[in-house]
């Protein structure tokens, strides 16, 4: 039995976890400004939710779910994405009946997909996502796109490409679907086994096939944009007008399909165009969904959202050489020697921490010189020294590591003194 972490998972160790915290805080702050509030849903749900929500014909449901039977004989699945759970919660808690619609949520947490791991593709990854439920206003589509883009821009990314498409309403989709079947049916035998099934179940999925990508029929496949009815066409135009007023650059790609079944009207992805980003260039994706709330047992309500993985975001930051302003230093290291000094050091360390100051000390019984070395390695701003001499005089020696300045401070004034040093008295 291997004692390594399972394939496609990773440990996030100090040095990197600070970056995660920083990014998570920035994203939460962005959501606050757009007035999206945090929702936390369970990590596992009834399998049926994803089968019906994400769609039976998707790769996610057919090949990638972590599904197991629990001890009560129920089929349970580790969530492969967040939208279905958010919609389930919205319906279950009858949030649609509350005043102040639309309902605007954000979420952050681990998702699970049994995919073939490679750089940027994990089996456990963390998604940050938002969902706005209960409005059909194209302006909210543009708001979601703006938030998605700004989440990257504000962290310092520049090489971004926003690709948008419309998948139309049900009527448009049905017309397009019939056209796709007419187009691909003569080539049925030349398509992969999966696509032959897709052609019957959900022909749109054929356009998304990785195996048949090079088939000549792909290039000439009918575009959804030719099948949009007036309502869908007008909707898409309005979304684009709102993007224009916000000066958001985008490209329309009629072949953008997305890997989940619930979309109609607006669909989009954001790609990284940074050199050396890797084979997978999609940073995030999302779109509008109309049938999902009803599918889960709620009233006819539509929503729009998007999700990104933090893993791919951090990869993009690295590819663009963006340094995150994370502080990995230490405020105070307490150096002490001798039993009584050690006892006092424990007491003062505790008091400093309770006063809001970050402090660490030696726990390996090191000599004074080695303790100083440790303080230096940890990047401590101040070193407090308490030896026999200082004890006798009722003082602590305070050394400012940047300036090299030293001063003796009375033991009973040390908390106040350090507070002033570190916060400038604020
Ligand atoms: P998705 O396109 O399946 O959409 O995933 C969204 C994002 O999650 C991807 O663009 C990527 O950043 C990240 N992601 C997906 N799979 C992996 C993986 N195996 N490893 C690392 N990152 C991954 C959804 O999940 C929809 N729920 C988005 C949405 C929200 N649509 C409407 N609302």
TrEMBL record:
Q: Name one GO cellular component term.
A: cytoplasm
> What name has this protein been given in UniProt?
Histidine--tRNA ligase
On assembly, the entry states: Homodimer.
Give the record's keywords alphabetically. Aminoacyl-tRNA synthetase, ATP-binding, Cytoplasm, Ligase, Nucleotide-binding, Protein biosynthesis
Which NCBIfam families has this protein been placed in? hisS
What EC identifiers does the entry list?
6.1.1.21
Cell location: Cytoplasm
Which species? Halobacillus faecis
